[in-house]
Amino acid sequence: xxxxxxxxxxxxxxxxxxxxxxxxxxxxxxxxxxxxxxxxxxxxxxxxxxxxxxxxxxxxxxxxxxxxxxxxxxxxxxxxxxxxxxxxxxxxxxxxxxxxxxxxxxxxxxxxxxxxxxxxxxxxxxxxxxxxxxxxxxxxxxxxxxxxxxxxxxxxxxxxxxxxxxxxxxxxxxxxxxxxxxxxxxxxxxxxxxxxxxxxxxxxxxx
Length: 207
Prior knowledge:
Strand content: 5-15%
Helix content: 40-55%
Number of strands: 4
Radius of gyration: 17 Å
Number of helices: 9
Distance between the termini: 17 Å
Strand order of the largest sheet: 2-1-3-4
């Protein structure tokens, strides 16, 4: 049975999961829920996700939600495909992976989300004026977080949905950060990201 991914085509979290499916060359059917009619709040979807949110993965009846949890599941179940994105045996490597995961969710994502929402999403989607104070506070908090990026793991790919939008804010996050610049170029040029950056589509098979 082909894995099913429920979500919104351009949702950041849905694209996060779809990218990992591409990384691991896992064929999947994408079910694009209709946000305009709040299909994510339908009884059918609430049976899959009790909070009425996306994304949700259905792997032959096994249901899992929360994009980072889904991504860990994919990277672990199909560990033998593609790059090794998650350590599975060395306890110290696992600990460092979880440390990096905590840094991403606590020290990168909140600030990148606020900066991109204020400077990119609001004007593009007609959601009102940019709150300059919130934007500048997020950028100030984000700057010192960008000096620690080196090699690729699943956590690095977690950064992409919002991280890839940072140049659109008009702020120079790259000057004086050769490691971050290299890291950013590497992750944003991966075929898996290119496949989903403009929206998720079903991938029924791989050659």
